[in-house]
Amino acid sequence: MRTPIIAGNWKMNQNPEETTAFVNAVKDQLPASDKVEAVIAAPAVDLSALLASAKGSNLKTAAENAYFEDNGAFTGETSPKVLKEMGIDYTIVGHSERRQYFHETDEDVNKKAKALFNNGITPIICCGETLEQREAGETNNWVSGQVKAALAGLSADQVSSLVIAYEPIWAIGTGKTASSDQAQEVCQVIRETVKDLYNEQTAENVRIQYGGSVKPANVKELMAKPDIDGGLVGGASLDPESFLALVNYQD
Ligand SMILES: O=C(CO)COP(=O)(O)O
């Protein structure tokens, strides 16, 4: 059985004080982590505050990015080794904003996933198509190709434990959610891609999130789909009440 995983991606929002206030507001009302894993991915500058305030609670922690080297002359980058030393559980890689604005390639995404595993951090690997690609009927091939490239060289055990987030770019921050059927179709393609690359069991184990205008009003319908195991949530994760409604969607 796959444990659902609802992760907030704060993007470049919140400061350390706001982070602490948010965690204090939610930490006693989170589901048991074997029921639904609740995760916050915060900017690097907020991670110390996130970890300190989340300590002893059911909230899991994530970084929004990391570099693929552990240390060295890489000004401005974040070390996956240090993220692990700090106690971070997950790290998002290959978000479409990083691909678009910071020119992250499939190869970078693959190297980052490997570097995270080498340090004992679980990657949340993002994929998704543009509106033009969807309209041209290229979605399934494109997303499948991104997944193949991201997973190259990873073991079946590693892929069993990681998270893939399907985020159609046209649905991010636009208020336009993919319909639950559209989201399910692509999440199923992702699971089939993992099955073709590895085996049935690995495909059964890997958790797949949908992201793109997920909110309390649509989370239940999305989570009812057989191949959707979670959500990666931007805007609706910034408010404590909304985040609690999302992670407690089963109640
Ligand atoms: O990019 C996203 C999460 O990573 C989705 O953002 P929104 O939920 O704001 O559409």
Automatic annotation (TrEMBL):
<keyword id="KW-0963">Cytoplasm</keyword>
<dbReference type="InterPro" id="IPR022896">
    <property type="entry name" value="TrioseP_Isoase_bac/euk"/>
</dbReference>
<comment type="pathway">
    <text>Carbohydrate biosynthesis; gluconeogenesis.</text>
</comment>
<dbReference type="GO" id="GO:0004807">
    <property type="term" value="F:triose-phosphate isomerase activity"/>
</dbReference>
<comment type="function">
    <text>Involved in the gluconeogenesis. Catalyzes stereospecifically the conversion of dihydroxyacetone phosphate (DHAP) to D-glyceraldehyde-3-phosphate (G3P).</text>
</comment>
<feature type="binding site">
    <location>
        <begin position="9"/>
        <end position="11"/>
    </location>
    <ligand>
        <name>substrate</name>
    </ligand>
</feature>
<feature type="active site" description="Electrophile">
    <location>
        <position position="95"/>
    </location>
</feature>
<dbReference type="InterPro" id="IPR020861">
    <property type="entry name" value="Triosephosphate_isomerase_AS"/>
</dbReference>
<feature type="binding site">
    <location>
        <position position="213"/>
    </location>
    <ligand>
        <name>substrate</name>
    </ligand>
</feature>
<dbReference type="InterPro" id="IPR013785">
    <property type="entry name" value="Aldolase_TIM"/>
</dbReference>
<comment type="subunit">
    <text>Homodimer.</text>
</comment>
<protein>
    <recommendedName>
        <fullName>Triosephosphate isomerase</fullName>
        <ecNumber>5.3.1.1</ecNumber>
    </recommendedName>
</protein>
<feature type="binding site">
    <location>
        <position position="173"/>
    </location>
    <ligand>
        <name>substrate</name>
    </ligand>
</feature>
<feature type="active site" description="Proton acceptor">
    <location>
        <position position="167"/>
    </location>
</feature>
<comment type="similarity">
    <text>Belongs to the triosephosphate isomerase family.</text>
</comment>
<keyword id="KW-0312">Gluconeogenesis</keyword>
<comment type="pathway">
    <text>Carbohydrate degradation; glycolysis; D-glyceraldehyde 3-phosphate from glycerone phosphate: step 1/1.</text>
</comment>
<feature type="binding site">
    <location>
        <begin position="234"/>
        <end position="235"/>
    </location>
    <ligand>
        <name>substrate</name>
    </ligand>
</feature>
<dbReference type="InterPro" id="IPR000652">
    <property type="entry name" value="Triosephosphate_isomerase"/>
</dbReference>
<dbReference type="InterPro" id="IPR035990">
    <property type="entry name" value="TIM_sf"/>
</dbReference>
<keyword id="KW-0413">Isomerase</keyword>
<keyword id="KW-0324">Glycolysis</keyword>
<dbReference type="Pfam" id="PF00121">
    <property type="entry name" value="TIM"/>
</dbReference>
